[in-house]
What does this fold into?
Amino acid sequence: MVQMVDLKGQYEKIKDEIDEAVLEVLSSAAFINGPAVKEFQADLEKYLDTSHVIPCANGTDALQIALMALGLRPGDEVIVPAFTYVATAEVIALLRLTPVMVDVDPDTFNTTAEIIERAITPRTRAIVPVHLFGQAADLEPIIELAESRKLSVIEDNAQAIGADYTFADGAVKKAGTIGQIGTTSFYPAKNLGCYGDGGAIFTNDDELAVRMRRIANHGQSKTYYHDLVGVNSRLDSIQAAVLGVKLKYLDEYAAARNVVARAYDEAFSDLEGRLKTPVRQGNSTHVFHQYTVQIEGGGRDELKDHLAKEGIPTSVFYPVPLYRQKAFSEYNAPDFSLPVTEKLCRGVISLPIHTEMDRETIDQITGRVKNFFSAADNRRAGVG
It folds into this structure.
């Protein structure tokens, strides 16, 4: 059976390590803020080469806490790509800030400094670039733009943890550690996923780190002393124990996903003009949280139905631009439209990709995709 993500198969390979780590938490009964959380935090700080990791309950909370820490005021504008998951804009609206939605690059699916610059107004206070599908946005010009306009940058790194970004001078940093704040999700299907909900915030700014830790813990500086209005957002010890094991394999997982991606690329190389494979950006590695192709000239939904009948699952990330969601109708005129986002929402489809995929499964998927286009060619030619 083909699966979008094979979490069971992944677990079975590291079962002994996971079980031991979880049982250690159960034996200690240190379920909240126990040693497993502190160990995972320290290990992730080392892996990312960042000063501070603040674990929290989920990726959405991570974004919210990050925005709360910046001291923004209701009505302040935050620029966000329209082609992304709802959480990125949801927390902006929740805090009574104004999400300003912008388009993305048609090749990388990520927004750019050039696009962002056109959306900046006197009320703009922050930018939230999203590293979509496993590849970092082109951050260096975004950071330069933000610094020149005195804007904050929060990286939404829920899909690209482990990706490396290379600056013009050759310096390399991990995605999520370049802006003032980075955030991620440990949802089970993520490249680094736990067995429940989880998230984290990254920063090299000591003052922001103190503030975000307090916000995540009811605004407390110490127990029962609340300096800020905060939230209750914690990564529990069992999830931290799972993540501590899986972090050791994160680069190996990315390599396995890249093997699948290259096999897909090769199989689809003769479908130019009908199926566009993912474009790798020269200054970022790709960890392939998703393998997302674009169906050119229509037929995306027909391909999805065809594959479903063949027992092959697919997903559409994302079928509706954020500005067309009812929840965000107040922020844009009814005729507001972003051409690349509209095109992508009509044409993208994500194929199964995970760490446990074998060659037989890859061949099965690619064969069914190619059969779809062959059948379409035959219908146009009046054959069959």
